Amino acid sequence: MKLFWFETYKIFSRWRTYISFGFIALIVIMTEVVMKLSAHEILYRMMRSFQKDFLIFGNVLNGWFITAFIMNSLHIHIPFFITLVAGDIVSNEATSGTVRLLLIRPPSRSKIITAKYLTTLFYTTGLVIFLGLICITLGLLLFGNGDLIMNYQTKFRLVFIPEAEVPLRMLLAFTAAVWSMTVVASLAFLFSTLAENSIGPIIGTMAVVIVFLVVGNFPFDFFRMLSPYLFTTYMVFWQRFLDDPIPWQEIAKSAVILGLHNIGLFLIAFIVFNRKDITS
Amino acid sequence: MAGVLFLISTGWIQAQEDASRYLDLIEKKYSALKDYVVDVNVHFDIEALKAPDLQAELYYKAPDKMKVDSKRIFFFPQEGGYFNPSLFKKKAFDVRLVEHLIYDGRKAVKLKLTPMDTNTYDKSFVLTIDTDRNLIREIKISPSEGREVKAALDYGRFGDFELPTHIDLQLDIPSGEPTGMKEFTQFGQKTKRITGKVEITYSNYRINVGLSDDIFREKGLKKPE
Amino acid sequence: MEAYSNKEVVLRTHGLSKKFGKRWAAKDLNLEVYRGDVFCFLGPNGAGKSTTIRMILTLLTPSAGSIKIFGMDLHKHRRAVLSRVCGIVEKPDFYLYLSAYKNLEILGSMTRRVQKEEIMEALQAVGLTSRAFEKVKTFSHGMKQRLGIAQALLTKPQLIILDEPTTGLDPQGMKEVRGLIKELASERGMTIFLSSHLLSEVEQVATRMAVINRGELIAQGFVSELLDKEPVEYSIQVSSLNPAVELLKKLPWVEVLSAEDGKIELRVEPGHASELNRFLVSNHIEVLSFYPHRTLEDFFLKITKGTSEI
User: What ipTM is given for this predicted complex?
Assistant: First the structure.
């Protein structure tokens, strides 16, 4: 635990860590202010296909709707902020030379790498929760409360979630979002263990995420075949908590697959770090 | 030959006048209905719309004002969801008698209403009218873009008026699914259709309460200018 | 020196080897460091000094051999061993975005719980008290070096391993570090294992030493003993040059290298240094000055045959 707190202290002592939080706050604030100013137009465009057959009354564009809307872009900007820290947490020790002081201490390499990994997960969790808190708080302030309408753009489908159910579902959705982002963190962490500078892991992780996202969404049979093997396919499983009925089996499957990714990636990093010769 | 044609045309004109008569009777029956307020409960049974039962208050003022007041988000069918006796003005439609039938054990007629001016109104209707009680029992609406809505109405007596207690809507509409990347490989695929049912229950009618025009300012989401 | 047979061996390597690809960076090293030693590890650039130190500090995994510290196998009892050891490999690098105090707190606490007073004491010992709460990125190289020693002292280790500790320091800084090394050994009873390429520095601080070249151990022992095994060059000034030269040429254990301006340069076989002066005096040659040129540098260059690069 002591090692974990030291690693956490080190991470949060760097101003760079706060860039991520700052940018997330900026993105959320800008998005919500723009949406407030263009609320009517946005909502009309989103609900256009349904409005041909239904009249829609009430506060559709409420804080929960805005939160869900922003969360849909979670897998685009959050991975980058995660890699800034996760891709640096091990490699930076080599870059700065502190690895020579760190690894000659009594705690084993296993403990050190585990502490660093837990810190990475802690940071990832904090980042996603921060996103959630700021989305929800600002969203409810600007747009008020209400039922949540989920419009699945790729299907003609609308799901209505009563206001009383929304907080719990959002909590579950964010938990799932945290879980999906931990895979990105684990990947960046692994790259960080393999490299001796931070640039490689950051770029490498983002490249993998982007390529997987693109490949997984290509509408060709070959890429559809690959899609189940790409972790990015399961990264949006948090959306299932905002569906009706909640597909628990599908959620469990996605969670397990992502969990296996985490375990595998961490194990590789663990083994590499334990066997690594420190020559720098 | 001319005589035959004359007889046929006068017979046809006679039939048109008969068809319009049924609408006249309905119009007369509800001529004293100026407005009403009613509690509405909407139940959705549509694959594409997952929602619990929704409740609201519906305001109607003759001839064509409608508003829904709900504490929560509320969906309401665009067509056939509420009772508007002023909708079927014979002057606006070409009314044809389709057939005589027995509906729910009573004598009824089926009328086809085709709009005279499609620029102002683009929907056609097939009405099934209970001729004993002068009540519209079924409305089949065929608006543009391949949409079909069929409404079945049940009535109750509220004061001097028979007003719907229950409207069952059957929807058969195109999905409007965006032809995005997901469907890229499926050229020439037929547009998916969404079918389902909406059950609307009305209760606690308050009739001719003297509603002001001011309360009908907003009507759900509007297209931005 | 006979007392050493009773002394505890603090560090012992047996057959210690490390291979990188096809190249042996260290091969079959058998080192012994006794308690209280200031043990110096010498070798040309690329000889394998850093590789050896890194293996001892578990930064590298040996390809073969064993390391025992305090009688315990290093890899089996890593935690117990390293809690009594501290080291600096190359230049000490710290978390630049943290203060000196915080760096010591974090690094020290990885060995044992350290109190604030201990941290301040360690900083005081190296003259950094006034900069305790400033970020290390504001420190000069010399200050970082001192901070490195502070972190080495903080947990009161019994064995300190230093890899070229005076690198980059000015003469004053070097003197301070040398003084500190001597103090740690003599007054605090610590055992010091250090590598250096500054032979004059080693000569001043080391009690025992080992020389490595191309990954292989070529000499190990007390500094004085190792040097005593080699012929020593002397520079003597005499009142009568020519008679002195004639006399000296008769001695089989003396080689006259040069003689001019009243000064004679000569090489004397080991074990005869004390005889030389007696010989001259007994033959009525007045000796005005008598300087040995016995240096570690000569010894080092000779046994490494002047190799500076692998």
Answer: 0.82
